[in-house]
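My current task is to audit a protein record that another person submitted. My question to you is simply how this chain folds and whether the tokens agree. This is what I was given:
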Amino acid sequence: MVKVSQVSENIIKVHMKVGITISAWVVKHENGSIIIDTGIRPMAPRILKEAARFGRVQMILLTHGHPDHVGGLAYIQDKVNAPVYIHGLEIPYITGEKPYPNRKKPTDYTKGFSVKQLPGDSRGVFHSMMGIDPYFTPGHSPGHTAYYHKQDDVLIAGDMITSKNGRIGPPMKQFTANMDRAMRSTKTIQKVAPGKLSICHGEDLEYSQHLYSTFVNEYQSKV
């Protein structure tokens, strides 16, 4: 069953449990909406329903191209035809040009529509997009990206981390391309110091320095 939770004033989390919890997000922006990740295909109609409450879908942002984050993309794009953005390092994987690390076969999740590289400058610093700041957080996948909603002070962490019992955990090992790099990317959490962390696989957490320090102390050899 697909469920919906209110993350903050302008952010809704659409989630479904299939062994693990899989999540996507809908963000209210002026007279429209932004979708962040599209979950798996059965989640797509509910994501669209929630997005429609706010108006036209203005863009789709992707944390990365793993199937539990882009499985609903083709269905949603067929309905809304919005620009889709992802880190440039992810494009060859999401378009089926090559398989992800530790995967045998490539898969094309775009089904013929275009995917754009997140805009940034020559230093690799991303531009803010409709009040959302992208942060490059590689490791779980080569181009994994987290998104910070400035107005609501929420960091949408995607698969940068997991959570359980009110604590931060590392990303799932079996699906992570480079765990050492993924753990280093968690420093973004401390850098941004958001009011809340919204996580794909797990519960959302109120951020505090103690929360992050506990995580670092537990996994300090990798952070």
